[in-house]
Recover the amino acids of this structure.
């Protein structure tokens, strides 16, 4: 065999486009990976899947879905598409849903509905004829977008008390894309296309400082009680001379110690309680992530915006009240001291 033939075989083997079947046997054969994947699919009837999820606070409108459809159409122009279809499902917070048999029907749906959208699922199905493969292969691309404000509303209505922080964290997923495929290269191209669309979506803007505060709201009760406790302890220490004169009896000393302990404990617990309520109020605040398609969505977004403002005001008021416990203690001491 000539040197040129050896170099050609080496190039084909290391290019990553060929697979060796029966290596080391007389029937050793080099075939395309596309053909190998097609054979595997024909024999087993199985397809692989790849997916990616997102938790960013996306704010999606109808025009964004149109942009998604445009991107996918452009991506598929490089392939030999034998058949394709698109369907969409819109899930509402009142446990109803609408199904559309094409993207055009989805775009033209009734936007005047008073029901808020919980999530939207768009599914594309393709039959793609790849080079070196005799039969078209099926691919399925599904994109799901969830409205966080709608999900949180459902959770509030189903619980008689405040939503636990752990449940709010579990409901943070706002988007998922899944591709079922035969050929991984095609699947990766579709996944990257949708990923770029997610990256371009508008989202709620929140400063890094405010994110830091909301993520550490559990420190509010601790900060409040230790500040109040330290201030009252200092106040008691500085007031010893006013309450215990020289030559005070053991009874006076015991009375002062008991009152000091009760006052310190009361201030400590009251500040902690106010700090805990401030934490609960702050935990009610959330980044506005939504799908805005209907009139019900717009009403829900306005309600969520107002609720966020109330949560911030309530948290500031309660935490300030916790810090004022120490000031109240000073006023009480001033009144008592002759």
């Amino acid at each position: 065999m000539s040197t040129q033939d050896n170099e050609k075989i080496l190039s084909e083997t290391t290019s990553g486009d060929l697979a060796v079947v029966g290596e080391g046997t007389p029937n050793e054969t080099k075939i395309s990976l596309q053909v190998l994947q097609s054979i595997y699919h024909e024999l087993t009837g199985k397809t692989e899947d790849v997916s990616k999820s997102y938790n960013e606070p996306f704010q999606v409108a109808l025009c964004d879905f149109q942009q998604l459809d445009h991107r996918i159409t452009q991506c598929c122009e490089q392939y030999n598409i034998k058949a394709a279809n698109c369907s969409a499902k819109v899930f509402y917070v009142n446990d109803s849903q609408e199904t559309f048999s094409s993207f055009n029907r989805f775009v033209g749906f009734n936007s005047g509905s008073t029901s808020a959208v919980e999530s939207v699922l768009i599914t594309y199905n393709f039959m793609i004829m790849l080079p070196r493969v005799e039969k078209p292969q099926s691919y399925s691309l599904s994109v799901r977008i969830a409205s966080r404000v709608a999900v949180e509303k459902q959770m509030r209505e189903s619980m008689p008390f405040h939503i636990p922080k752990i449940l709010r964290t579990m409901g943070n997923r706002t988007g998922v894309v899944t591709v079922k495929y035969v050929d991984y290269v095609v699947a990766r191209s579709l996944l990257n296309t949708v990923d770029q669309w997610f990256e371009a979506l508008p989202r709620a803007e929140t400063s890094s400082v405010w994110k830091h505060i909301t993520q550490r709201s559990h420190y509010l009760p601790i900060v409040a009680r230790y500040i109040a406790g330290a201030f009252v302890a200092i106040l008691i220490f500085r007031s010893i001379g006013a309450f215990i004169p020289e030559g005070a009896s053991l009874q006076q000393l015991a009375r002062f110690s008991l009152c000091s302990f009760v006052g310190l404990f009361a201030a400590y617990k009251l500040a902690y309680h106010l700090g805990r309520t401030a934490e609960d109020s702050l935990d009610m605040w959330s980044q506005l992530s939504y799908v805005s398609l209907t009139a019900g969505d717009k009403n829900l977004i306005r309600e969520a915006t107002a609720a966020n403002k109330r949560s911030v005001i309530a948290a500031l008021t309660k935490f300030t009240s916790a810090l004022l416990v120490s000031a109240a203690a000073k006023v009480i001491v001033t009144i008592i001291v002759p």
